[in-house]
Amino acid sequence: MTTENLPMENHNKRYKAVWRWHFYAGLMVIPILMLLTISGLLMLLAKPVDDALNQHLLIVESQENRLADSVLLNKVKENYQHDSVKLYIPAQHENASAVFSLEPAHTQGHGGHNPKSILVYVNPYTGKVLGDRVSSDSWYETVKTLHGSIYLGDIGDLIIEVTAGFAVMLVFTGLYLAWPVQGWRTLLPPKKFQSRADWRQLHKTIGWLIAIPLFFFLISGLAWTNIWGGKLIQPWNSLPGTSFKTSEANHSDLNDHGAHRVPWALEQTPLPKSHGHDIHLTLNEVTKIAKEFGFQGFRVHLPQGHHSVWTISATTMAGDITNPLAENIVHLDPSTGQVLANITFDDYPAMGKAMAAFIPFHEGNLGRWNWLLNIVFVVIIFMLMVSGLVMWLKRQRQHTISVNAPKAAKINTRNVAIIMMVFSLFFPMTAVTLIGIICVDWLMTARITLWRRLVK
Q: How far apart are CA 284 and CA 67, in angstroms?
């Protein structure tokens, strides 16, 4: 071998070592990531399905004049005397109903965090109550629970967090493996799909096409996990809220059961505290103030006890608007009408601004273009995983299914493992799992080596 061939030889050794860990990460990721991809697609499709099934609640016949907001509130209170009104969403267009969110009486006083709420739909022209439904009993929320926790609660959340961390590794190791060292034309799709090489070429092409969107999908999804998102990242990237007198409650208390309606950067920020005890400000006055501030699509959170405040919000998280840059949250003192806080997109920390854009994009809330684009992305990601599975199946010999990783030199495998460990420190739960995999791999390798020595 000439010295000129050494760089390529070293590259090939590193390639095999990276391929080994790409293989391991794939084994960890594909089953759960496939479930997340399918459930993500179902979430996107569930939105129009839910709207179609609830037309009798959502759509009204437009008339000349709407009733005052306070009149609609009183109509709801008359029909639901034992429940507490938490939220009001004015009619978004002339044929839309007004919506109130109520906390059922049987959940009050039980210390339940964000209990299930009842959505009540009202004709804004006549005041007639059109009906109600439990907020979490929709197709969308049902599939969202599968997508967010696999119906396993905190354990499912942990599994998804580990999976997402490994998926980020897959993205970067995959880009290394697919780097076009022989020219960008090597990224073109194959003309046929027969051999393993054809499917590897397809996998490479799709991987380069979807790598960046997939990375942002993974990071924005990780933002909602309990440990990486809730314990490590969110506390350091939340708005402090020190410019006003704060209460014991956080903005996350404004969320509905299982549904995030408050911007990520505000969830752990304390709510302002009212200066008085009595509520003198009416719903009519609050909606008037909202219009003075320039709000169009918005929702109003009603005070829920002593020192609590009125909150007017327009966010992409809640689907009020489709432009993250226009997000606005205003808190009003219910006893005086004083503006206690006026929070806009510009006030978010850098990570909070990124999440304000990435999370609604992840959920397809930035408009119909975003919804359609996400469907395309989901299909491409699914194709990427299918092509990887086909490659693995075609790699098997004599129809024997094996999970053995590709062989690589020990020193290269060790070096890549160290790099993977350093990288995984950004995702602690993934790092813990990776340590376990390295230990298992080392034990298996040592056992095989010992067996070979004994046989000799």
A: 10
167: CB partners within 8 A, 6+ apart: 25, 29, 33, 214, 218
Q: Can you tell me which residue has the tokens 């160290």?
A: 418
> Do 155 and 111 sit in the same domain of this protein?
no
Look up the domain containing 113 and give its range.
Answer: 61-124+239-348
Domain-located, residue 441: no
| 360 lies in some domain | no
pLDDT in tens, 181-190: 888 888 888 9
Cite the DSSP H helix spans in 54-105: 55-58, 69-79
Q: Strand locations in 212-292, DSSP E?
A: 246-250, 270-272
For residue 253, what are its two tokens?
A: 């208390």
Where are the alpha helices (H) located in 134-225, listed in sequence order? Answer: 139-149, 153-177, 196-222
Token digits of residue 70: 């306070």
Residue at token pair 């907001």: 69
Using the 3D structure, point to which of 348, 379, 402 is the last residue of a domain. 348
| Same domain? 94 vs 201 | no
The model's pTM: 0.85
